[in-house]
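Researcher: Please translate sequence to structure tokens.
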Amino acid sequence: MTVAIVSVETVLLVLLLVLVAGLLRSHAEILRRLETSGGAVTARIAANAAFELDAETSGGGVSSDLPVTVIGKTEPDRLKGAVNGGGKLVRLHTSGGSIRVEKAGGQTADRQ
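Model: Translation complete:
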């Protein structure tokens, strides 16, 4: 029997690609969550995707290239609100790094 060893980042990337593909394919599909305790999360999402974002980290900051209509108070480690009018929930969480939401296929803002 052959056993393949893959990194947590590889598994998360595959999960993210599956989730984003589902979001773009149909608004009826449920998008649940992406969590890690060992690193940063970068989500590349189409600029016209409509969803509710709930992103939180305990080990870094949260930023988005997509416009987010913020719900609640603004905090450096949490971003919660509607993107393009809202839709299905997209939950991103890490306890070991930053979270970044980028426009897929386009130019992103300069990183700091």
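Researcher: Any highlights?
Model: Residues 5 and 11 are 10 Å apart (CA to CA).
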